[in-house]
């Protein structure tokens, strides 16, 4: 039986004295340990017993979370990776607020309790704090729609994380500097990222079967949007010269993919390691403060760089959207979120102004002396 078929359970790992690792399973809301192997008769019997909810237990935040996780809104409307992240964050929230009675959500003071929690988490990870608030707000919104609560107590909460990287892009000099001595497997990553504008998680999961010889076909993990990216000549040359050492287009030097079921950060670590070697940082990355890290180029900034280059080349918003996977409704937000205003764009705009027939009258304006 697959783990995802049993909501409300979580695992902990313990290293034993002999060096082996053992996994222990617990029922989240009751905190009861579930005996036996996962999925065994003993395990399922204990799970069923722990999952028997009394009338009193259905009046807690933990049960609102459980109802949301079993709802069509969660199961059918969210991508697989998004659901995994929601479950992770809700497990933390349930430990903090799971026993809170639903009636307490009507108190004007309860919003302050959640804001205090947000501020505590934000002291170390502001983005995580905001994301947890967004997820529990989704739970409360669903509960409100179902008539379980009269109001979402944290609706329109204020986000604490502020990140505006629209003016941070990889310049020609930055890219040349990175590529100069980069291992060939990282060179391939740069070319693929720059010529497709896709996210990190989608790039490392691209398979050779997604390449038809002319274009790449993928379903974006974050949005479930299907996109087709026609390959440029440079990207096509890179792809056709890359040995197919594994099912995935991007692979490590030894042929392994850049991710495992438990960890997808290997490429990110190797990428930062090369940036250190290429002296993008004044000191080792691990020694940088959070403020210093945010001021440096990130891998994900290549996505904004790709969109900027598309705009500089004359691509229209609908054309850019067809590659990035955004909806037409969010097209205007691309300019705000990704399109860094570069000298090339400014020059192109003024060249168009200078040569358009509609602006001929403005281009003919000159100063003249006024007769005395």
Write a concise synopsis of the structure shown.
This protein is mainly α and about 375 residues long. Helices cover about 45% and strands about 5% of the residues.
List the helices and strands and how they pair.
Elements: E1 9-15, E2 21-27, E3 33-34, H1 41-50, H2 61-69, H3 72-75, H4 80-97, H5 110-122, H6 126-145, H7 172-180, H8 184-196, H9 200-204, E4 215-219, E5 226-230, H10 233-241, H11 266-277, H12 290-295, H13 301-312, H14 317-324, H15 331-337, H16 343-355, H17 360-363
Antiparallel strand pairs: 1-2, 2-3, 4-5
Helix pairs in contact: 2-4, 2-6, 4-6, 5-6, 8-10, 8-13
Supply Rg. Answer: 26 Å
Largest sheet: 3 strands, antiparallel
Strand content bin: 5-15%
**What are the secondary-structure elements, in order, as H or E?**
EEEHHHHHHHHHEEHHHHHHHH
What value does the average pLDDT take?
86
| pLDDT < 50 runs, ≥5 residues | none
Shape: globular
Task: Give me the secondary-structure category.
Answer: mainly alpha
Strand order of the largest sheet: 1-2-3
Share of helix among residues?
40-55%
Count of helix runs: 17
Q: What is the rounded distance between the termini?
A: 96 Å
């Amino acid at each position: 039986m697959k783990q995802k078929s049993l909501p409300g359970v979580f695992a902990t790992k313990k290293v034993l004295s002999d060096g082996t690792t053992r996994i222990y399973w617990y029922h989240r809301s009751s905190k009861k340990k579930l005996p036996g192997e996962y999925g065994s008769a003993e395990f399922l019997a204990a799970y069923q017993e722990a999952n028997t909810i009394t009338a009193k237990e259905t009046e807690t935040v933990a049960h609102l979370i459980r109802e949301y996780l079993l709802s069509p809104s969660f199961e059918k409307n969210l991508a697989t990776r998004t659901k995994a992240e929601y479950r992770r964050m809700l497990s933390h929230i349930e430990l903090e607020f799971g026993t809170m009675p639903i009636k307490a959500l009507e108190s004007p003071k309860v919003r302050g309790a959640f804001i205090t929690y947000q501020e505590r988490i934000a002291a170390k990870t502001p983005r995580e704090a905001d994301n947890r608030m967004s997820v529990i707000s989704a739970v409360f919104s669903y509960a409100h729609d179902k008539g379980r609560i009269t109001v979402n107590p944290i609706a329109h909460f204020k986000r604490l994380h502020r990140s505006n990287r629209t003016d941070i892009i990889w310049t020609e000099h930055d890219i040349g500097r990175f590529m100069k001595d980069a291992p060939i497997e990282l060179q391939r990553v740069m070319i693929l990222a720059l010529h497709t504008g896709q996210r990190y998680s989608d790039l490392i999961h691209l398979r050779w079967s997604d390449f038809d010889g002319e274009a790449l076909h993928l379903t974006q993990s974050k949005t479930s949007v299907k996109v087709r990216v026609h390959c440029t000549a440079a990207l096509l040359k890179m792809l056709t010269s890359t040995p197919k050492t594994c099912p995935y287009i991007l692979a490590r030097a030894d042929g392994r993919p850049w991710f495992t079921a438990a960890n997808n950060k290997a490429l990110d670590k190797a990428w930062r390691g090369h940036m250190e070697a290429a002296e993008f940082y004044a000191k080792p990355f691990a020694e940088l403060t959070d403020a210093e890290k945010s001021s440096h180029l990130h891998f994900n900034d290549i996505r904004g760089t790709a969109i900027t280059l598309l705009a500089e080349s004359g691509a229209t918003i609908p054309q850019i959207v067809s590659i990035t996977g955004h909806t037409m409704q969010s097209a205007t937000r691309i300019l705000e979120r990704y399109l860094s205003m570069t000298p090339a764009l400014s020059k192109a705009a003024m060249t168009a102004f200078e040569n358009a027939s509609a602006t001929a009258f403005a281009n003919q304006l000159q100063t003249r002396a006024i007769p005395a």
